[in-house]
Amino acid sequence: MIGNAGICSALALLLFISCPLLFPQIKKETGTKGRAIFRVPVNVVVLNATVTDKDGNPVTDLTANDFRVYDDDVLQNIQTFALESFGSSELEETKTDRTSPTPVLKKEKETQPRLISIVIDDLTMPSLHNFPLVVEAVKEFVRNSMGPTDQVAILSGSRIVKVPFSDNKEYLLEALAAVPSKLNIDTIPRVFTDLEAYYLSDMMRESNSPHWVQLIRKASAWMADASEGKRGRAAPLRPSNSAEAATTIAAKVQFGNIEFRYRNLLETLRQNIRALRHFEGFKTLVLFSYGFLAQSEMATTYQLQEVIDLALRSGIVLNTLSIRDVTTSMSNDPSEIMMHEEDKRAQESPLIQMASDTGGMFSHRRNDLAKGLREIASRQSYYYILTYNMPPKQADGSYHKIRMEVTRPGMVLSYRKGYYTPKEQLTFHNTRKTDIIDALDTPGDMNEIPMTLAYNYTQEEDYSYTVSFVTGVDIQKLSFLEEDARRKNTVSLILAAYDEADNFIDGLDKSIEFRLQEGNYVELRNQGLTSKVELKLPTGRYKIKAVVREHNQGKMGLVTKSVEIP
Predict the structure, then answer these.
(1) Which residues on neighbouring strands pair with residue 457, listed in sequence order?
(2) Cβ neighbours of 318 (radius 10 Å)
(3) Cβ–Cβ under 8 Å, residues 153 and 163
(4) What are the DSSP calls for 499-525, one per residue?
(5) Closest CA to 172 of 146, 198, 148
(6) Which pLDDT score is estimated for 379?
(7) Stretch 259-278: mean pLDDT
(8) Residue 403: what pLDDT?
(9) How far apart are CA 517 and CA 514, in angstroms?
(10) In the structure, what pLDDT confidence band is assigned to residue 248 with cuts at 50, 70 and 90?
């Protein structure tokens, strides 16, 4: 804890001390006893709603009084209301009081960058044929459609590819050239479509599937071919006396592998959104995906809602592009075609939901992915943001329905239709840990809290150097709570060193609690925080990441520097 006596020296103090780093796991944390528990504000429900007329034109002159929002059929009071605009042209933001009869337009600063995080789903695809088409579409966008204030990052669902945000077209094109060789190429052999495997993975579902007999025959034929070597590989299962039992086992094996990949894809999106919320600018995520299932009984349904809720709370628009049927060799069998269409609808449904619930766009231009990406990037979209206080509910993960109405007739609404309550309350400890781990893995520097990082080194032994790192933190944007005539906040500072292969080498972690009188608080804001830490590193090239996180609002900053020693 830093009070009056320590503040003057703290302004230029060497704040880092030798403590185990939080990443890759927490070994020890510093801090004072009795620190207040920080809880994520989960009692506010956020809605993004797009409203169009009968011709599909956006309606942008509605006020809060035109909306009715119901939570489990109970009318709610709208607490905050805004009209947001997102697109390639100059953006306009409408901030209104909910009692205001007309919106008041306010232009955003022209210097605000547009951050476009492109995620290539390399986990759910049944083949590799579409990877080059996706990469070429992103290349075309970078060459011809990136605006002067745009910054683009590229991430793969497997997290093998991590290209940080950049406005340098040459750098991005060079990075994209290497992407196909880095994407996950470990595809899952599919006996069934994903939806077929879902139907068949539990014998109890057979009465719900109109395709049961057909699927049993398909599975039996496949296993017979595999056992005779016609599939070019050994049979995955020993032939069973019961075709139904063998089919169920085969479906469970396939669907277990597929669902694991679904969950990893959604975790990648969650981590990316958690990091992206600490960047300043107009933020959008674009997902190229084959699609995935989020049926009501599946864990992915809850994960999907968590991703959508996090995007809404973070001001991030989700856009999705389906890459199904970019290349296809369809059977002429009507039943096969019907099952293919049913599978496609089921797997594209979560992609549509992510876009519609956050004010984004879903594109299914499967044979022209570049045009689909252009349409997303150039689209001028308008969406209303409404919030209301969540009625008292148990933190049990239960689902609650949302219904929205507009008093003006003839309007078409798109909005999220419900939410899950959290399964547990999050404390400062585990939110801090998750935030910092996600920050260390984020593509690009976070500018929510401005930082600087400098270094110098001295040789200790033939191949060992003492490297001094000096971090400067601009705290002008930090909120210090006023309590007992003091300004209070807790600041966490982390430094991590990685080798050229992104392996963690060493690092330090420190939390500092401030309780400042007004004069010392003003001095701290004017001068900022300066910290110094020393690491012993051998000769080589390193990537150094410095992270700052403040307690009161969860704001973060991150700066990355490449270091070569000597």
Answers:
(1) 467
(2) 27
(3) yes
(4) -TT--EEEEEEEEEEEEE-HHHHHHHH
(5) 146
(6) 79
(7) 92
(8) 96
(9) 10
(10) confident
| CA angle, 270 then 275 then 278, to 5° | 135
Burial of 466 (0-12, 13-18, 19+ CB in 10 A): middle
Please, which pLDDT band fits residue 366 given cuts at 50, 70 and 90? low
Burial state string for 478-516 with b = 16 or more CB within 10 A and e = fewer than 16: bebeeeeebbbbbbbbbbbbbeeeeeeeebbbbbbbbbb
- Which pLDDT does position 223 carry in this prediction? 53
Give SS3 for 559.
Answer: strand
The confidence score (pLDDT) of residue 384 equals 93
Hey, which residues does 294 pair with through a beta bridge? none
Q: pLDDT tens across 154-193, in order?
A: 999 999 999 999 999 999 999 999 999 999 888 887 878 8
> How far, in whole angstroms, is CA 31 from its chain's centroid?
30
The pLDDT, as a whole number, for residue 398 is 84
Range 381-414 burial, b when 16+ CB lie within 10 A, else e = bbbbbbbbebeeeeeeeeeeebbbebeeeeeeeb
CATH architecture of 4-39+427-565: Sandwich (2.60)
Residue 368 Ramachandran class (φ > 0 left, ψ -120 to 50 alpha, else beta): beta
Q: Kindly report the three-state secondary structure assignment for every residue of 39-94.
A: CCCCCEEEEEEEEECCCCCECCCCCHHHEEEEECCEECCCCEEEEEEECCCCCEEE
Backbone angles phi, psi at 76, to 5 degrees: -115, 155
pTM, rounded to two decimals: 0.73
Chain position carrying tokens 């001295």: 458
Residue-wise pLDDT for 523-554, tens only, equals 888 888 888 888 989 889 999 999 999 988 88
Domain map of the chain by residue range? 4-39+427-565, 44-87+383-420
Contact 488, 515 (CB under 8 A): yes
